[in-house]
Structure prediction request, 334 residues.
Amino acid sequence: MNDHLRGPQLPPGRGQLSEAVAAYLRGAGRLPRTVTADPYGDDLQLALYLCYELHYRGFAGVEPRYEWDPELLRLRGAMEDRFLTALRADTPGHDSLDDALGALLVEPAEGTGVTHFLCGEGELWHLREYAAQRSLYHLKEADPHAWVLPRLWGRAKAAMAAVEYDEFGGGRAERVHARLFADLMADLGLDTGYGHYLDAGCAEMLAVVNLMSLFGLHRELRAALVGHFADVEITSSPGSRRLAEAMRRTGAGPAAEFFYDEHVEADAVHEQVVRHEVIGGLLEEEPESAGDITFGIDATEFLEGRLARRLLTEWRAGRSSLRAPLAPEMAHTS
Prediction:
């Protein structure tokens, strides 16, 4: 088997921690014994992303055995503790699960988020940057959530599997959502390679993706992953409607429009299933999980809010949100 030759290239480190992890994966150097890096910063988030990616497609030239390397798992655990401790301390929490879900269901009359910006005034270069950032998630869309399936049962398991089946194209390879996003990227003149924009993605985007992996890889956080999934599905439909309009307004291309049009319809249904069957089924079996579901929702909103502030601050100043701006020769030409 040569699977370890097929993944994306390891990116350069962004500090001592991520440089040490990258070197270790190349078979050189030793891992640090302690973790003191900023829990939301580039160095820790990239190092954590490198560890998590070993459970997805891995990296070119990195042996598959590193997925369960004891020393790497020890360091990953220390990074996870630092990240999760910060999240529990910094995330504004709702008093109840009903309050958290209710907040997601309310669309503000005067929206100021990223999708509102892109819909109303975003230019093609903003959309291309947004797609490049989001590719770190969308090219593995639904994969982190699949880890929760063996950890659920009854109504919750059946409903979660039904939603995941849709995310994976309903049995049709060309309709897998990750494939549809790659088609969107092609319309925008972006490289569609898995992990291609990892080096360009900001720390805030890495943290959003790392949260899914953190919740998905730990059985004790399964209810938090359900909360995260609920947040994604409930907020997806209205946001996707705005993004579809942004794609049409800027002439991004038919595949770019279709990806978000598809999510407007699919996620409107998924939202009902997740709220009533996945969450309802989990609470029926484990009523004590309400607090963790709420934390999953609130932590997702907290990290998405940090990402939104980063993107909008840079864009409104006329600057790129990426660590490495997109190559001019990749520009969309239609």
Remarks:
- The radius of gyration is 19 Å.
- The chain has a mean pLDDT of 94.
- Residues 93 and 298 are 6 Å apart (CA to CA).
- DSSP finds 13 helices and no strands in the chain.
